[in-house]
Amino acid sequence: MRRSAINKMALLVLLASSSVWGLPDSKAMAESFGYQRDELDAAARLSSVALSPYSGIELKNAAVMPGDNGNMLYFTLTVTNGGNGSLSFLDYWVKVYSRSGAEFTADLLPQDKLKKEIPAGQQMDFSFYAPVNDATVLSDLSFSIIRWDYSSAELEKKVGDIRFPEEAEAAGVFAPESASKTVSMGGMPVALEVTAWSALTNDSFISPKLTLRLTNKGQATLKLPGYQYSLRASNGAMYPLDIAVNGDKQQLQPEVPLDLQLKAAQLPAAAADGGWDVVMTQPVTVSNDLKLDVPVTTLKVTAEQQAPQSLGDSIEYTNKDGVYEMKLEKLDRMPWDDQDVLSADLSISHRQAAALPFPELKAYYELDGGVKVEAKAVKTDQAVGLPPAASVHVQLVGKIPYTYPFSAIKLVLQEKESDNGTEDIAQFLLPPSAVKLPEVPFGQPQSITAAGRSTQYAPRAINTFTDGKSKLLEAQLEVTNREKRSGAIPKLSAFVKTPDDSLYPAKVREVKQKLNPQGTALVSFSTKLPVSVDTSGLKLVVGESVTDQHISLPDDKPDAYINAVEMELPRERQQGQETLKQLSFAPYTISLSQISTWLDSSQLRVNFLYDLEKDSFLETNNDGSKVIIQFQDEAGNMTYEQKFYLETAADDDDLKLELGEHSYKMTVKDSDLLGKIQSLKKYKLSVYYEFQGMRKLLGSQTIDWFGKTD
């Protein structure tokens, strides 16, 4: 029996100079809903038990902690040997009692099992653990020091008790709450401090992050075993913290601070009432069936909560790959059909020497604190990762009905960690954004500055076509490749905006060819307008097309756009020159000369030379474009016209105009020609530019019959 008791006693210690913990006092919680602090103040220790005139035992620290095996009491006794000879701790034992008389069996922690003799003039710590019940409160406990006495029937003799004072005086025994402490870790003094704290709110949950700084105040490098960290709420609830940064560091060098970034996700927001403690523990294996989390210390979180981010603010985010710096550059609200596009421009960079992979981002907008609008993360730069000392941009794109009003908007940025899991990165409080786009005056180009897609575009001309019932407006943009390599023309989306803010979606006529460096293409947008709309005050709302979660590729159908602007359009060149020379319809110019006619009773021939020129520097798309040459007699009784494709025709039988100067003969066969043409004094020859079945008069000229023009 003595041997088993001694073995029990040899089973309990670990933590020199550690801090202490406790469980909630049910009575105190019922009255104040607060957690009873239980760390002992080193300057106000409890009365000791004398073993001899020069030796004694005192309680150094104590804590009650929840664990997998229920609540556990941890405490450390300090034995002082002031005598001339060694003192055997095997002659002593400790029993733990509550005020109600319940006894709790204490055992030594494995690290202290081999401690037996305290040399003369020295002190030694012995750390214990004891399972306790849910109602155990630290201040209700007493620690009885027992000496084995084989001369008595009980084989033991109580030497003395260590008790907490009465409830009214117990508060003076506990250490004050602190955000920084120096504790013993591995025999070295280590300063601990919570230096940063933030907590993102999401519905009724919070996702806290904090920085714990460890500084070795000793003279030798300290090995760091696997310490664990938790947050303790004011009601005693414990929440584990994950180490996001520097968790792989195994050593702590003297006077070299180590910042551990700790985080947790989806904690109840209500748990934050009353503040938080950071609980540091060390796992200890007693047996295959018993593993303990022995307390090291507790730190009060007093670091000031980081203010919510806003436009222009930078935040640091850390994951397993490294530390990222993110900055929200701007927020746009742009019109898109019957919706508005919300798009935030996020720049991502880092300060590490090696490139980092892209974090897989997700995001949503929260309107007026309750309405969620999912946002797609669109990477706008051509990059496979994040190079050092460079920024890469991501647009966070969502849509809302254009009539939806809101007074507050928040952007929640997340990283996807699994198929169903995300971690909040940051929350940005943003100013409510109206549909107010940057205005670009005519003559000033708009730039795309994304890496690998550097481009400029600017309006060149507008054309108005009609079929007598409606108008078709075409806005032509010159697009220039500013990259040093050839590349595809960025896909653009556009709307035509009237002075009363009406918005007409425009179809794009794209150029599929790649552009060489400094190469230019003519891209046009067209839309149908009511005949009554005045085209003099129109603007082109245009931006970079987005499809799903990427910049639109040439064959993609856009579902949104980013970086939209309002571009001032030029005034349309006056329709209908009174000559058929130098008629311009970009990128072509056509001139007719040497015009003459020949006529008999059933046939009319109109002979002319045409000279078709083209701006060869411009890449173009001529789909839907034709030239119409029309003959009309003076009275308007007889009209004849022919349509010509430009350069290439759809079929071999179709007429086409070729580049350069060519002669052509329009032939009209009609048995009643002379009956229709009542006057042979004058006729009119006109040239029209046709686009998508509608036409625009380029020029017309009245000519004498049977004469010949220059």
Tell me, rounded to a whole number, the average pLDDT.
86
| CATH top-level class of the largest domain | Mainly Beta
CATH topology (fold) name of the largest domain: Immunoglobulin-like
Total E-strand runs: 50
Q: Count the domains.
A: 5
Keywords:
mainly beta; Immunoglobulin-like; eleven-stranded mixed beta sheet; nine-stranded antiparallel beta sheet; 52% strand; disordered N terminus; signal
What does this structure look like?
With 710 residues, this protein is mainly beta. It folds into 5 domains: 2-173, Immunoglobulin-like, CATH 2.60.40; 180-300, Immunoglobulin-like (Sandwich); 314-430, Immunoglobulin-like (Sandwich), CATH 2.60.40; 439-568, Immunoglobulin-like (Sandwich); 583-704, Immunoglobulin-like (Sandwich), CATH 2.60.40.150. The protein is built from 4 helices and 50 strands. The strands form 9 sheets. Strands 31, 32, 33, 34, 35, 36, 37, 38, 39, 40 and 44 form an 11-stranded mixed β-sheet that branches. Strands 12, 13, 14, 16, 17, 19, 20, 21 and 22 form a 9-stranded antiparallel β-sheet that branches. The N and C termini lie far apart (132 Å).
